[in-house]
Amino acid sequence: MISPLTTTKPVQTSLLSVRDLSVEFRTRTGIVKALENISFHISKGETLGIVGESGSGKSVLALAILGILDRAGHITNGEVLWSQNTETHNLLKMPEKKLRQLRGKELSMIFQNPRVALNPIRKVGKQLVDVLRCHSNLSRNQLKKRALELLASVKIPDPQQRYDAYPYELSGGLCQRIMIALALACSPKLLIADEPTTGLDVTTQATVMNLLKDLATDQQMATVVITHDLALASEYCDRIIVMHAGHIVESAPTHPLFSQPRHPYTAKLIAATPEPHKEFNDLIPILGSLPDLRREDLAPCRFISRCDRASERCQQEALMYQQVDEAHWVGCWYPLEV
Ligand SMILES: Nc1ncnc2c1ncn2[C@@H]1O[C@H](COP(=O)(O)OP(=O)(O)OP(=O)(O)O)[C@@H](O)[C@H]1O
């Protein structure tokens, strides 16, 4: 795939630049080509949404960036450039020890399932103190004070009492907030939030997302929000990347992406998304399913079998990104007209 998204922004002005990243999983039933030539960047203070249906590669992308793919996963191509002050490092080439220091302090992640991500046999307050101790020189008293402040900052009621709770004693929503407090403990420069509000009620969802947005503004924290909730992405993100079957198919600032989607898949995703003014019958399901990523004969465009605009060219020629407007790119030979 030819991807000019790699050159949309100079590395120096981005905090993170992912370039032509490809990931495969070697499994007993074949090689899963989970990501192919993924390129994007994110700047300080920016909130970037990554959307796409289940299996499109959103979580694998986050794990690959942080260097925590599981053993079956292999990065077969690309670089992940991290720029701080005037220095740029490829995280994929960074020694594990240095990368571990960076994770948690500068780069942080909120995982999809907080109950799995938290240590079930350690009190949540202690888990916060552990993270703070790793990355700061605070005294014992200061560590506890900071942990309590963090619990309060994510709106945990009665932080003093919750400090001594084990994860199983807390609701899913509270565990999610503990995860967020852990991820934010060291004021990271980049937060990757994978489905940060899954399982939360609507009010708590808004609290969590507003909190993340405030931190992005106040501390210039860059945030990648991974979600299949388009409504949430449209409300909180500055820019959106749409993924389908391991490819980026469209990338644009939020407003143009939703008002003038140019990739047929983006348009279908939007048409399938519930909105307050839409009746249930107005929603149009996306027909077909993601292709089997183990197939050796995957077409250059992985949306081809679900697309009503596809032609021979989509089957034969390498997928080309087209710039359809400023900062608006689409990976399609036949983008939708405006
Ligand atoms: N450990 C693994 N072994 C084999 N294939 C894997 C592994 N992890 C992920 N994959 C494959 O990689 C592809 C992308 O998966 P990923 O979990 O990133 O999707 P996702 O968009 O995050 O989905 P969801 O929204 O459901 O979390 C899928 O085809 C998945 O089956």
UniProtKB/TrEMBL annotation:
InterPro entries per the UniProt record, alphabetical: AAA+_ATPase, ABC_Ni/Peptide_Import, ABC_transporter-like_ATP-bd, Oligopep_ABC_C, P-loop_NTPase
Principal location class: membrane
Gene3D superfamilies: P-loop containing nucleotide triphosphate hydrolases
Domain (ABC transporter): residue spans on this chain: 18-270
Protein name (Swiss-Prot/TrEMBL): ABC transporter ATP-binding protein
Places the protein is found: Cell membrane
Annotated GO CC locations: plasma membrane
Signal peptide as annotated in the record: none
Gene Ontology molecular functions: ATP binding; ATP hydrolysis activity
Lineage: Bacteria, Bacillati, Cyanobacteriota, Cyanophyceae, Nodosilineales
Any GO BP: peptide transport
Keyword tags: ATP-binding, Cell membrane, Membrane, Nucleotide-binding, Transport
Family of this protein: Belongs to the ABC transporter superfamily.
Domain of life assignment: Bacteria
CDD domains for this protein: ABC_NikE_OppD_transporters (cd03257)
Membrane-topology annotation of the record: Peripheral membrane protein
SUPFAM superfamilies noted in UniProt: P-loop containing nucleoside triphosphate hydrolases
